[in-house]
Design a protein that fits this description.
alpha/beta, 5 strands, globular, five-stranded parallel beta sheet
């Protein structure tokens, strides 16, 4: 299936190559343009060069972890409204509370229920697309 010119872009940020490969395959099949970053520091560099419509972020990563990445994005005017979905094995109450206080759009635990996550991404990106028109 060819990807339309107006396809939305999703950045997958996770240090697990198996997770990123699966996520990329699933999201590409849904018509999204995807890119991958294996840690928060690389993600920040990538986001400076290439805008995206949504990020899928793991919390446990080397160099810059997911919570530090999200805090940094929320402190930057360019990314304050960027939809962020957390998908992580770290999902204790304190972590969830911190992520929610940073303004994430949603939080899911690994192993991932992909139909639920994809439906949520569809809903968020559709709402974002409507806001822009």
């Amino acid at each position: 299936m060819p990807i339309p010119d107006n396809a939305q872009r999703i950045l997958i940020i996770d240090d697990d190559p198996i997770f990123t490969s699966v996520a990329q395959s699933i999201l590409k099949a849904e018509g999204y343009i995807t890119s991958i970053s294996f840690d928060g520091a690389d993600a920040l560099e990538l986001l400076d060069r290439h805008p995206v419509d949504l990020c899928v972020v793991d919390l446990v990563m080397p160099r810059v972890d997911g919570l530090r990445l999200i805090a940094h994005l929320r402190s930057d005017n360019r990314f304050m409204q960027l939809p962020i979905i957390v998908v992580s094995s770290k999902s204790d109450a304190a972590t969830r509370e911190r992520a929610e206080s940073l303004g994430v759009s949603a939080m899911h635990s690994k192993p991932v229920d992909w139909p639920v996550v994809v439906a949520e991404i569809r809903s968020i990106t559709a709402a974002t697309k409507r806001e822009l028109t």
